[in-house]
Amino acid sequence: MYYYYILRLLKENVAYVATLIGAVAAIIFISFIFLQKLGDRNTKLAELSKDVVDLKEKMAYVNVKDTVTNEGYNLDTMNQILARLVPDSEDFFSIIEALERLSQDSHFVITSYQIRLGEVKDRLAIQISGSGDRESFLAFLKNYNFGGGRLTTIDKIDFRGIGADITSIDVTFYSGKAIVASTKPVFTKADKDFIKTISGKISFEIKSSPAESSVTYETKQNPF
Description:
This protein is α+β, with helices and mostly antiparallel strands. It is 52% helix and 20% strand. The chain is built from 6 helices and 6 strands. A 4-stranded antiparallel β-sheet has the order 1-2-4-3, covered by helices on one side. A two-stranded antiparallel sheet has the order 5-6. The longest helix is centred in the N-terminal third of the chain and has 57 residues. It starts with a helix and ends in an 8-residue tail after the last strand. 14% of the residues are buried.
C-alpha cells in the first residue's frame, strides 16, 4: 500500500519533481562553472603577482647596476670573471691552464699533479708536486687563489724546506651554477673590496664583441 501511495504522489507531482531535479542540476552545473572560473582567475592572479615580483626584482637589479656602474664597477665584466673563476661545470682544460699560468707567473715549477675524483660535489681536489726556491714558492702562495684564472684553495702543504726538490700541495678547484638571489640585491663595501682584490690578482683578459662575449687569455709554453 505504501509503495503505491508514493508512486501515485510522484505521478501527480511529476512536473514539480522534474522542476526540482532540473533546478538542482542547474545549481550543480552553475557551481561547477563558477568554481572553474574562480580557479582560473586565481591562477591568473598568481601568475600576475609573480610577474610583478619578477619585475620588481629586475628593477631592483637595474637600479643597483646603474648605481654600481656610476661608481666605476662594471658588473657585466665581473659576472664574466666570476663565471670564469667558478664555471657551471668542471673543465679540466681550464684547470691545467690555471696550473700552467700559476707556474709561469711564480716560477714555481709544477712537476706533476694527481686528480682525486668523487670526493665532494662541485669540488675537485688535486695534489700537485713542484719545486722552486723560497721566492718562487712565496709568489705561488701569494697569487694561487685567483691568479691562474680559477678559484683555488689550498687544503694542505707538505713543505720539505728551502731548496727541497719536491713540495706537495693539496688544492681544490670549484664549480657550480650560480644561485639567483630571492631578495633585493645589495652591493656592500665588502663586495666592492672583494672585487678590487680579485681584479688585482686575476691575470686573464675579458674580451667582448657584438657577436660574442668570452673569457680569453694567452697560452704560453707548457712548463710541465
